[in-house]
Give the backbone structure.
Amino acid sequence: MKSRLRFLLPALVIAAAVGGSFWHVVSHRRAAADPAKTTLRIGHWLLHTGMREAFAEAAAEYQRLHPDVVIEQVAVPIRVWPAWMRTQLVGDTAPDITGLLQANEETINRYFLPLTRFIDAPNPHNAGTPLQGLRWRDTFVDGLASMQALTPSTGEVNGVHLQLSTLRVFYNKTLLRSITGSDVPPTDYATFRALENQVAAWNERTGKKLVPVAGCGPYAQYLFNALLPSQTQKAAVALSPMQTLNLRPAEVAALMLQGRLSYRSSEYQASLDLLRDVTALMPPGFQQLQRDDALFAFLQGNAVAICAGSGDYAAFRQEGGFGIAITPIPLPAPDDPDYGRFTLGPISDAGGYPESMFGIVRTSRHPGLALDFLRFLSSYRMAALFAERSLRMSAIVDVPPPAGAAELAPRLDGEAPGSTVDFFTFGGSHAHNAFHRNLHTLIDRRGDREAFLKKLDDEMPAALRRDLAFYVTRQQQEIRRADAHLGLLRTQPSSTGQPAASAMASSWTRVAEFQHDLHADYLRYLSLMQAGTAE
């Protein structure tokens, strides 16, 4: 019986999602049949606390302002969202405003309208608010730079984000007070690291089996990405080939193949020691655990802390049954006796990570109305509403964090991060996989750094070459896309109005500069691959 249910459950989930999608399409057609009103649909995956309610309130407010408009939200479970979105886009049935979750550059350019020409004008829905008169672009914490980064080959902005996420450590204040004598959370790495011995002593006294940090594979990766670059900050400044104060993964790969940098470099050995150090705070086998496992452990009071995105705060506050303390990731300070000599200081997380991203589909029958509603959703008043209902950080300037959670706001001051040590999201992930495939030799109870380094010495050079070859191939593909885009701009009819001509010239310049950067990058790494080593 159990095995039968195991097979039936996924089918039932898919059937429910398809049925829900069908119902939304049918109801849309019924609503659109009323000739006296215009129906605008917004499709999203945001089913978590307060989001659907916030969308409903925003829609009701907009409909009061525009009685001839009906706003319909199409909420789709995140597990089926990617497939649902692709099906709707390909079938020309996507909602007028559709979420951009997991949409790549090709999808965005093909199916979503550019908004670049609108973002330098003020948002009319900010009249009478602290953001009145500001360019729409400037009302976002990051100036929409994160949205522009989604489409680097065109430089266009094809959407906006309503919220952002920051990475934080959340503490169970009740446990923290019982174990350490204070509910004030650690603010530096040394104090954070001391939790291992404090929790071990508590467990011995009480017979409990608490862990300092509720860990899992995905959340551990977030922590590694935030913590380990503290050890390569100075190296990034010293070795950056383009003097950009940081090192991209391709640049690190080239430096390693040149022999100018290696895992035996002091900075990288410190990173590995720090990695082993922090994993000791997590439960054994954390790499095999998933997000729900970590959340459950923390909410059940089996862990003192958890490293998670600010989007999880709502669940902690509403389901935890205990007070929550919040801090940024506690990085080693420059005066830390073990990990201070390679760090420049706290790392800025200005802008956070964009969330709740939306664009207007090219097939929308009401693009002007969709643009106005998108402006309405990103206005100061609506942003405050969403922050209050969802307990999430708004992406809009001057909108306060949720009550009692000021620490969720991005830290705007600080230094640039260094490079990661595991080549996360680089090339074909061969180096990343080699690193994590052997990680147990470093972090197991009987593991040691030298054994891990020997594994990396054997496997990393070949893995880096494969990733660099993949990277070069991708750069070549991007160059071809940029060439085609420039050709399209060249063959378009001449614009007659000055604003249109200026916009065309700006597009040409933007794409041409991007193409030149691609060529330089491509030729540099192609020569390294052909030589079989770095220059």
In short: Residues 21-33 have pLDDT under 50 and may be disordered.
